[in-house]
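User: Teach me something about this protein's shape.
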Amino acid sequence: MENDLLVSIHESRHAADFGAKGAGLHWLCKHHLNVPGTLVLTFAGAKKLNGQGADLDAQLAQALSQRIDPQKYYAIRSSANVEDGAQGSFAGQFVTQTNVRGLQAVQASIRTVLASAHAPGLKPYLQKIGRTGRDLEMAVLIQEMVQPVLSGVSFSKNPTTGLD
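Assistant: First, the predicted structure itself:
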């Protein structure tokens, strides 16, 4: 089920409005890899929410109340169109909040992540990689936290296809 503000990364067929991280997670879902339950406040949803008043906040609260479990913990993550690209990773430039639980806390974290797209420290980073920020679009991922058993980082290429 998709609505005006939130879409499920598992159900949607259109990742162009998800940001780089969201599009990557969508690709993993399409290829039947395990991805925790993830909702996306799309570029379009974020644009609607930015600068809007209580009415749209109420719509977001309603959409979240139908889609999140108030007893679960979530990671609220940035997914900008400029992240994870060849020009720059943007690691640490946008906010991620983990172990967020409850409707109001999730909604507040979404606002915090969206606001990080306008942080003063972002401008020098953008300039360093030759961007102005005018084309910056932010989506927000609302992703179920998982209980880790092991952790690690791996960078690799598929030996058959060469895909990163």
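Now, about its shape. The helical segments are 19-30, 43-49, 54-67, 103-115, 122-128. The chain is about 30% helix and 15% strand. If you'd like, I can walk through any region in more detail.
User: That's plenty for now, thanks!
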